[in-house]
Amino acid sequence: MFEKKSGVLLIAGLLFFAIAFLSNGLVPILMYKNLKEKTAEELVQGNGNLRYQFEDLARRYPESFKTAFGTPPEETAAREAWLNQKCADALRRGRNVYVGEGCWHCHSQFIRPVSNEDRRWGPVSKSEEYQNELQRPVLFGTRRVGPDLCREGGRRSNDWHAVHFFKPTMLSEGSPMPEYPWLFDGSPDKPNERGFALIAYVQWLGSWQESYPYYKDYQASNVKDVKLK
Amino acid sequence: MSADVERERPRHEDLVDERLVSWYFLAALGYMFISMLGGFLMGFQLIRHNPLRGIELLSPGRWRMIHTNAIAYGFLANAFLGALHWAVPRLALRPVLDRRLSYFIFGAWQVVVLSTAVGIMLGQAQGLEWGETPVWIDPLALAGLLLVAINFLAPIVRLRGPMYVTLWYFTAAFIWTFLTYAMGNFIPQYFVSGTSAGAVGGLFIHDLVGLFVTPLGWGLMYYFVPIMLKKPVWSHGLSLVGFWGLAFFYPLTGIHHFLYTPIPMFLQYGAVISTIAVEMVVTTVLINFFVTLRGATGALTNNLPIRWFYTGMVFYGLTCLQCAFQTTLTFQALIHFTDWVVGHAHMVMFGVFSMWLLGTMTYLFPRLLKTDWYSRTLCEWHYWLSALGIGLMSADLIVAGPFQGYFWASLLPWDVSVDFSIPFWAVRLVAGTMMFTGLLVFLTNLALTWAQARRAEEPAVLAAAA
């Protein structure tokens, strides 16, 4: 058996691989099968922190916002739905930019219960936080050149992120992070669609937390004040 | 009588397509060149002196992914396929299934690797470590791996009686590589998300090393080392332990990449224990090979491929020992996310498997080109620059790692850990330059050897024409 083709093929090749997959892959899949996977739309629903940031982007960069996402409807309910949808699209797009630029190779997205990480960044990560379509495949990450990002949302303002993505050393002297001028139309106050998407995505990270850093819960009624020229 | 012997031992020319072996090796070296360029770009970025900043297609983040993918799928896969086209037919005494299929696979695989590189350069990477190949290429790559398995398994399946150790490793590797690629690239992308996807992703990262690269590498060692030393491997029993131990424990280790994540703790413990078991299995394999060397240690000085191989094995021992420590939760708390892991990865991918494959090329190119190396001195330079370069790089990063870990745990501002790392990243760039220079020396030597082979051919051709 040990030196024969059938043994090597069937036992080592197939059986042992299957045992490993069943025990290490299928077990967590079955354990979490009742945790529903949320879509990007469901993530935006009821997340006032995130909607606040998205509308802040619209307020801060009205012209660029219109170029990237179009003009919102006039009527309040329609505008609400429009903003929700655009925000969900931005999250999906932002995740693709985050992956495509390799952000996740230098920034992790989980807080461990060791090494004082909860004191530096916030609450330790839980399974349900990752049960959504933006974690396909999951972006835990394996290296930190820069800090962890899964509690990043709301820590810094949108214009901070815009300038930082454009040229990190303008805000963080000595940062080894690369520059991403292609997320902008020439200057940090003109994000393009990808730039908006990435900022929205980063502001989403951790925005579901109760201990969300700076901003009070956003009141949905404020939306009337948003003036999109 | 002699006709029987003739039939039992088919001629080398009928078994091995030497031109294809050379093509694979050249493609592999080309990708190694590209991969190292990517490494340089990221290296300069880290010490904050990237001369090409702000160019979208040359973004260090994207080239970091090209760096790893070009090594895994460009260099390692191509070099392994070349070596397999030499070793498998000679061991099975039968040619591969179909030569045209071999050439088709060669072309298809280059398309896969090149489109991976272009896709990543255009920002279409998939969020799976070591599997950043854009999702639209994955089915194509998987089909390629299936064809590879069919092409090589055909001669192996027709073999009668017990198989030699090398073929156990190869046979299992063809199955495992296909299954691993399918599992890792499709399940976390299309079927599950979150923590479960993380568990599968961990399996993928580690199976790629443990079930694709490792078995093919050890298979080649079991094949070439006895041939070069002109003596059998010391213990057949230990090679059985090595293979079956690897087959059982290696697939179970994947989750050790994500310790302290929300993945259930009992699965993390399981992965830790399996990893330590792998270390014990590895020790038996190393004992077997080093005892084989007994009485033939002179080969380390005068047989260059043997020196490449055994240097790789020393690094293998170091890297597995390191792994057995770093996989424990105590070490993980400190060194996870640091450069310690990066040093480990470089020691495995370059110090072990690239060393073995470069040694294989050093051995096979003279046989493929029918001439000695143009310069033995240049071969020595290639060896020493590579060996010292990777030694320096791993040592540098492995030392930097614990410091970074302590800086982070100390809650000092993040920038402090970055400023501290800069000198280490500068040393790493020096080490990388040594390895890159080694490659350039090798390529130069190869070009000169090639020219030498052409010159040797010409008189023969002229004589034949006259």
CATH fold call of the largest domain in chain A: Cytochrome Bc1 Complex, Chain D, domain 2
Number of strands of chain A: 0
| Distance linking N and C termini of chain B | 38 Å
Say how many strands of chain B there are.
0
How many helices of chain A? 8
CATH superfamily placement of the largest domain in chain A = Cytochrome c-like domain
N- to C-terminal distance of chain A: 76 Å
Give helix % range of chain B.
Answer: over 70%
Describe the sheet with the most strands of chain B. Answer: none
Identify the quaternary structure here: heterodimer
User: What is the helix/strand order of chain A?
Assistant: HHHHHHHH
Question: In terms of structural class, how would the helical and strand content of chain B be classed?
Answer: mainly alpha
Radius of gyration of chain A, in angstroms, nearest whole number: 21 Å
Kindly state the mean pLDDT of chain B as a whole number?
A: 94
Largest sheet of chain A: none
What is the number of helical segments of chain B per DSSP (H or I, 4+ residues)? 16
How many discrete domains of chain A?
Answer: 2
Rg estimate of chain B, integer Å? 22 Å
Structural class of chain A: mainly alpha
Give the chain pair forming the largest contact, with residue counts: A-B, 76 and 92 residues
Rounded mean pLDDT score of chain A? 90
Structure in words:
The complex is a heterodimer of chains A (229) and B (466). With 229 residues, chain A is mainly alpha-helical. Chain A has two domains: 1-31; 38-225, Cytochrome Bc1 Complex, Chain D, domain 2, CATH 1.10.760.10. Chain A is 45% helix and 0% strand. Chain A starts with a helix and ends in a 25-residue tail after the last helix. Mean pLDDT of chain A is 90; it is low at 214-224. Chain B has helices at residues 2-8, 12-15, 18-46, 60-92, 99-121, 138-157, 165-191, 194-229, 236-249, 265-292, 299-302, 304-326, 329-335, 339-369, 376-409, 414-465. Chain B has a domain at 8-161. Helices cover 80% and strands 0% of the residues of chain B. Chain B is built from 16 helices and no strands. The model of chain B has no long low-confidence stretch (mean pLDDT 94). Chain B is mainly alpha-helical and 466 residues long. Chain B starts with a helix and ends with a helix. In chain B, helix 4 crosses helix 8 and helix 14 runs antiparallel to helix 15 (376-409).
